[in-house]
Each structure stands twice: as structure tokens, then as C-alpha cells.
Amino acid sequence: MFKKVHYFALGASLLSVAMMSIFFFYRYNRKYDLIKPKRGSITEAIYGLGKVKSYSKYDVKLGIMSTVQDVYVHEGDVVKKGDPLIRFTENLKFSSPINGTVTFIGVGKAEGVAPQVVLLSVQDLNDKYIEVSLEQQAALRVRAGQTTDVIFESLRSVKLEGKVKAIFPKNDEFLAHIQVDGLMEAVLPGMTADVSIQWANMKMSCWFLSPQFLMGIWLLRGIKIE
Predict the structure, then answer these.
(1) What is the pLDDT of residue 215?
(2) What's the 3-state SS for 114-137?
């Protein structure tokens, strides 16, 4: 009986020593980091590709067949309200109703023109907004006044802030107009940008992986963890 107790005590001692050895070995030779939970925010956003457009645009069209008698401007010219643009043989003369830049001329002097065809365009390049086409599921979550982030592909280091100005249907599409204050002069109508519309923000405690495992920002069904 005494020998059995002695062997049992010896085995228990050896097991304790082995467990302590394993504990200290992994404690000082671990390949992982122990980190504490950090409180952060989870922002759910809707992502889309937006296109820059101008609020003020004027297109010259005719309702009858005619011939161009004179063109007073060139593409790229900056014009003021009231400046002459183009004249036709019927003594039809068109002047610009806005301050802007001539962005398109589709005819030349002495050319015949067809009705309802855009012959010349003027745009105000300073009065700009961004238009985003949304899927139905996304459109149900978008409201005027929501905050947006706008990033242009060639300017990844610059993140612009904006707000949803309006959302409406057009030809079976759901469009959102984004107003961005401080949109750079170099940004022109027709350029595209990545737009994220923030519609939910929650603060909660969550575990963050160590830098060895965290390779970037997680994107889960439009949920961005920052």
C-alpha cells in the first residue's frame, strides 16, 4: 500500500513538473501575441461608382433643318452669359445663357444640320456634383443628408467628405446626387470616383487580430471594420 502511494505521489510530481515546463516553454517561446480587446466603431456603408456631372449645362439644338452660317467659339473656350455661340442661315443666333466652358462643338461653318441633334454644349465646370447609380436594395437604405466618403483613383491619399443631396428614380434607375464641398478644380465632369455612403454606425468592443494576421481592412457584406 505504501509503495502504491509513493508511486502515485512520484507520478503526480513528475506530471506537475512536466506541465510547468510546458507552460514556461510556451510562455517564453510563443509565436503569438496576447492583446486586449479594443473598443472601435463598425460602420456599415453602401459602395458605388460615381460620375462627376455639372448642374449647369446648355445644349444648342434646332427644331428644323438648317445650315451653319458662323461659329463664334472653339472647344475649351471660357464664355460668359450673353456671349454669342453659333448662327444659322435663317438668322437664328444662339448665345450662352450661363457662364461656363465650351465642351462640345459637333458642326462647322456651312454644314447642314438635322433637327433635335446636339450641335454645341456649354458647361459650368465649377458647379459640380457626383451622381451614383444604386441597386434597389441599396437605394432603400439611402436618405438625403447621409455622410459620404469620396475617393478618386489617382488621388487615393485624398479622401473627400460629402453628403447625399437627393435620391430619386430615373428611367428605372435609382440615382443619388452627392454634394462634395471643396471639389478640386482639376476634377472635371465625366471623371469617376469611388463613393461610400454611410448609413449605420455602431460602437462596440471587439477583438482585433495581431499585426501578423491582420493584413488589411475586412470587408464583410459592405461592413467596414476600422
Answers:
(1) 43
(2) CCCCCCEEEECCCCEEEEEEECHH
